[in-house]
Amino acid sequence: MKKLITNANVFNGTDNKLVENVSVLIEDNLIIKIGDIDPSTADEVIDAKGGTVMPGLIDAHVHITLSGSFDVMDSMTREEMAIRSAKISKEMLMRGFTTCRDVGGNTLGLKNAIDSGYATGPRILPSQAAISQTCGHSDYRQNQAQERLANGHEDSPLMKSGTFKVADGRTEVLRAVREQLFKGASQIKIMAGGGASSTFDPLDTLQYTLDEMKAAVEAASDYGTYVAAHIHTTPAMLRAAEAGVMCFEHATIMDDEIAKIIKDKGIWVVPSYFTASLIAERKIPLPNEETYKKTERVGKAMFKSADLIKKYGIENLAYGTDCVGTSNVHETQMQELGAIEKTFDTITALRMATSNCGRLFEMSTYQHPYQEGKLGQIIEGAYADLLIIDGNPLEGVDCVMSDDAKKVIMKDGEVYKNTL
Ligand SMILES: [Zn+2]
């Protein structure tokens, strides 16, 4: 089956200029040619009417299964979590996100259901359970710590569901990482320091010893993939960089030393400017005053770190929203694009949400579930994951953020929206 998009300009995901007035030929699920193409060679023609073809958006930091507030999730059955997740993933695709990396949640089943057509949603690169130490950011027994510690490691619904996992010491960490790989993780997520939204672990706490982190990195790299770490502070980032962690989630409180190391080692940074500001403005419900204070600190620090990212020319930046909660929280997913444009510039925002994520995901090598084509680019041989926008995204991301201007959403060669 060949589809031809005619009368289009192309933003290829990397270049700061459009390829003007071309056609894009799609065979099944791949882009096979871009240029001047005879329409009679195609089975179906989509007239883009001078709109811009750009890569489908990619979010490198989502938690699709975290579909309610933490206390609600603590009493949710797995079936309810699955049903909510299916809704959230469908809405994500309909916003224009054709791929996401889930960094904490038992999403393999959902991914498989989407890939085989039983559910609608983006491609998912699952991390499976986010792994932390006892009394770490994903030790979700804290609500009733006394009783739950007595009952062992798994006595929390969120831990039983495979959302979070506790492992201590080299041996347990190796096993926990290998278990997630066995369950289909594309990359490994660990918690390498205190959290902002959690009730009990102060931001400045260091979580995981150097040796434990090295164990996680060893088990991941033996399987061809990498470790992404939830991390906020410079001391935690220095330790993680030494251990070989290649992706820093949040990376909020940086100094010059760590910014330079991040640049030199090519470590990826996945900041969340919009969610940070939302939380800091107290627009997302948090458990208590302490968590509000922590998130306010993170929100303010994040913009200082952005200055260091610019100062040291850190280019390994990926789009990540960290939307957690009900479907109306996930609705803010698009706002990050505007927040990045405001913090950096238009092309940085567009690259972060497209080709940069595609490059980041290539670090999963043979754990990468989508190896047939490139992700996040409009080039020959890329997956036919694309949007047709009424407007020029390079002149500002507003047209990408607007539902009306997003005329076509295509994933894997299949059209999910067409209002042309
Ligand atoms: Zn997160």
UniProtKB/TrEMBL annotation:
Coiled coil: none annotated. CDD domains: Met_dep_hydrolase_A. Residues 52-414 form the Amidohydrolase-related domain. The keyword Hydrolase applies. GO terms for molecular function: hydrolase activity, acting on carbon-nitrogen (but not peptide) bonds. Keywords: Hydrolase. InterPro entries: Amidohydro-rel, Metal-dep_hydrolase_composite, Metal_Hydrolase, Metallo-dep_Hydrolase, OTAase-like. This is Hydrolase.
